[in-house]
Write a structure and sequence with these properties.
Immunoglobulin-like, 36% helix, 24% strand
Length: 227
């Protein structure tokens, strides 16, 4: 009888141990579940932090917006410097000028160089300047003869409204005796630094045709002021 009671007691204790173990396992599993759920909660709570993380980038992006305001004084200085550099009379263009033949040296002598002169008058209401050589083409039945430039030192010519300047063509007149004449129907003049043209008539003795010469003695001289 005593032996049966002891066996029963041992069995009860074993059963209780299993129950406690089972309860402990459930508690551990529950704790583990809570522990593993924590990172998920952290991850979800980490998402709202993204705009805060992006705030510096937004601030950095706003920096260039302030650049134009900061650059404004420098931009104004550049504009003012450019205006100062560009101040003064502008360059004369074909639209500013009236061109007429001006025979300054009278009739030319054959076999001796002469000059065909062209008077340029500032017909605009503003002062303008010229410096250098105009483009000069002699146009006739034999074609177009683009004249070479003389050796010289061009000077700046300032023309007030109504002011005059001159450009001259040094040339060798046609004298016959087997020479070839270049008959000039018109002189086409392009002012320096311009693309538009003026046209005048040739007045004097026609030049010899030296279009194929290596060193022609017919050439264009620099623009000079009225004397």
């Amino acid at each position: 009888m005593r032996t049966r009671q002891l066996s029963a007691a041992v069995g009860l204790v074993a059963a209780l141990g299993l129950t406690v173990t089972a309860c402990g396992s459930d508690a551990a599993d529950s704790g583990a579940a809570k522990t593993s759920a924590a990172p998920a909660a952290s991850a979800s709570t980490g998402q709202p932090a993204t705009p805060a993380d992006a705030t510096p980038a937004a601030g950095a992006a706003s920096t260039p917006a302030s650049t134009p305001a900061n650059a404004t004084p420098a931009a104004k200085e550049t504009v003012q410097a450019g205006a100062a550099a560009g101040s003064g009379p502008r360059k004369c263009t074909a639209a500013d000028l009236n061109a007429e033949p001006a025979n300054m040296n009278g009739a030319q002598v054959p076999d001796s160089q002469g000059e065909e002169a062209i008077e340029l008058t500032n017909k605009s209401g503003a002062t303008c300047t010229m410096k250098g050589y105009p483009g000069v083409d002699l146009v006739g039945p034999r074609g177009t003869w683009s004249l070479v430039r003389a050796q010289g030192s061009p000077q700046l010519v300032t023309l007030q409204p109504g002011g005059k300047a001159y450009v001259s063509i040094t040339y060798l007149p046609y004298g016959g005796d087997g020479e070839v004449e270049f008959k000039v129907d018109r002189i086409v003049i392009t002012p320096p630094d311009d693309t538009h043209q003026l046209t005048v008539q040739w007045l004097d003795v026609m030049p010899q045709d030296q279009t194929g010469a290596t060193h022609p003695v017919t050439y264009i001289n620099p623009i000079i002021a009225h004397r």
